[in-house]
Here is the input.
Amino acid sequence: MEMLPGQPLPVPTVLTQPFWDGCREHRLSLQRCLGCRRFRFYPTAACPHCASPDSRWEEVSGQGTVYSWIVARKTYDPYWRNRVPYVCAIVELREQEGLFMPGLLVDVDPSEVRAEMPVEVVFEDVSETVSLPRWRPRGAAAGRSG
Ligand SMILES: [Zn+2]
Here is the structure.
């Protein structure tokens, strides 16, 4: 697989490596607190809700709804120039109220994005070792039902 020039890539840390490992396997995995059982994103050493340092990684549904979004129409970056207009969304995951993830919303006309639009995660393989999570309207793929 040939990477596009200027492709932004994650720089995993000890804390975030399990998240990126999951993405590589096309699984969305999040930290879940062993104290209060709440999921969290982004990865942190301690739970932002109860401060417990104990957590484990659990796969989540990859389904949610659009909470907010912006449409980027101009860019000075050569990599993103080929993608405008693009939609950057904040998605609230189905698992938990207030559990948000940012990401590109793909396979959608920017004018058709709506608050609470059902979306699902998809993974873009940007290199042999890196896959990035994206969001698309649920049921957007041909032959799939929502
Ligand atoms: Zn907790």
